[in-house]
Amino acid sequence: MSDAPAGPNIRPSRAADAANQEAAYAQQARGRDWSSHPPYRAPAYRSTLTRGPAQALVPLPASETPSSGPVFGHTHVRAIDADLTRNALTADTTNAAPLGERIILTGAVIDERARPQPGVLIELWQANAAGRYIHTDDQHNAPLDPHFFGGGRCVSDAQGRYRFTTIKPGAYPWGNHTNAWRPAHIHLSLFGPTIASRLITQVYFPGDPLLDHDPIYLATPLAARPRLVASFTLDETIEGHALGYRFDIVLRGSDATAFETA
Amino acid sequence: MRKPPPDLTPSQTIGPFFAYGLTAQQYGYGQPQVAGADLLAEGGDGIEGERLALSGTVFDGEGVAVDDALIEIWQADAQGRYASTPAADGAHVNAHFTGFGRCGTGAPAGTFTFLTIKPGLVSNPHLTVHPHSTINPGTVGAAAPHITVIVFARGLLSHLITRAYFDDEATANACDPTLLAVDPARRDTLIARRRPARTAPDRSGHDASADGPTNGHVARYQFDIHLSGPRETVFFDL
Predict the structure, then answer these.
(1) What is the pLDDT of residues A63-76, one digit of tens each?
(2) Spatial distance between the Cα atoms of A128 and B142, rounded to a whole number of angstroms
(3) What is the interface size between A and B, counted as CB pairs within 8 Å?
(4) Higher-confidence residue: B138 or B35?
């Protein structure tokens, strides 16, 4: 193997090596749970037809089941980052406040075996109370709020709990079809224990009549849709200050234990 | 009564407006971000490994560049160690290198460029070696150097996961368990191509080798991503 680059010889050259590889390939990593997640192609949501892949996803060999993922700690997050009613204020506007209905969005991050997930980075972004994003591409004719940025983050605590203070976002129109409006929603991004836990989702609000008309929400399997809707609770409501919404999040957990006992 | 196991929270699309929330500094919004496209920014010279720029364009099924995708990468260090993997063998995991990066495809439209290091061969602790095997136990089922690439975009209700391997690692690629599990006709969608060391800047005028602190010593690899269409990239079920 004089043509091989320096380093370990990894070319399987004996039947035993081939047997080892075959044994490894026979097993496949656990795939994504498609009874929970929406498909790549949902015709009512038009841009899925050019952006969603047409070919089947390829299973990974079981030996390639991810056992790691990026770790974010409190060095990445300040306390103010979890309070969207204050994180856009400056020294000159410290006594100002964004317009809209103050809410608490809180819950627990667990895995599908109900184990609390501490240390999960949760990032959030949303429109303001008028349904306008601060993003420069958002051309919706609704006012920006100089005291509201709409982005924040926190890290779940030892019990997997997280908590944001923010403003209830407004509905806004989009170009998917005639008279299309997105229901009020908050975008959430989460990093769990491995790269297979990665999740970006949206949390909706109970009783929103637009949910029944939203192709994104409706692309989700019927049984899974209620898992995208927060529940109002007086337990988290702060008297005289903010309404409380609870939204628990279930991430795919680490497969390490399952693999060893398989 | 025992409660049934909880069901997973469904994915939803990232939508078109993530830039200020997830990549605020890249897009010039005056707020923090937890990670950017330069994985060498914090560790600098303390990070061991060959410097490289991984660039590409994200295309939709009609060949149109996708200018509102978010690309995330996750990779091992030059010795094949992931930052968050417990160091069972007592090896010191490179404290300077997180292995995670994030880049929106806003400018130039549809493109991303990460500045990072070439990852090492990742050995597989789960596999046991046949007693009569002639090969090094540390390399059985080892993964060739690769970077995990995650794609989010408006129009993607669930994210996509792929891998960028390197065209100058042919020997390792030939034994990689994942590449071998992929239809040979589609394997080349997973291979980043090394570009000549000195070429004119690309059409956009962007010269990736000029990015970051290692100017002039960066291997440049091209890894385009086709969300669908005749050259659809292989995405993994994970």
Answers:
(1) 899 989 999 877 88
(2) 49
(3) 294
(4) B35
Tell me if the bond preceding A143 is cis, omega within 30° of 0.
Answer: no
Active site residue A217: no
Q: Residue A89 pLDDT more than 50?
A: yes
Catalytic-residue membership of A172: yes
Residue B133 tokens, joined: 């095997």
Question: Any CB–CB contact under 8 A between B93 and chain A?
Answer: no
Name residues 163-192 of chain B within 8 A of A (Cβ). Answer: 171-172, 174-175, 177-178, 180-183
Cβ atoms A156, A119 nearer than 8 A: yes
Q: In B123-200, which ranges are continuous DSSP H helix?
A: 170-173, 177-180
Q: Is the pLDDT of residue B36 over 90?
A: yes
Number of other CB atoms surrounding residue B46 within 10 Å: 11
Q: What is the pTM of this model?
A: 0.89
DSSP letter for each residue of B52-65? EEEEEEEE-TTS-B
**What whole-number distance in Å separates Cα of residue B43 and Cα of residue B78?**
14
B81, B95 Cβ separation under 8 angstroms: no
Query: How near does any CA of chain B get to the CA of A69, in Å?
Result: 6
Q: Do A66 and B9 touch (CB under 8 A)?
A: no
Which helix (DSSP H) or strand (DSSP E) does residue A20 occupy?
Answer: helix A15-26
Q: Which one from A41, A187, A198, A213 is the annotated catalytic residue?
A: A187
* The pLDDT value given to residue A10: 42
From residue B34, how far is each of A128, A150, A152, B170 by CA, in Å?
Answer: 22, 16, 11, 34
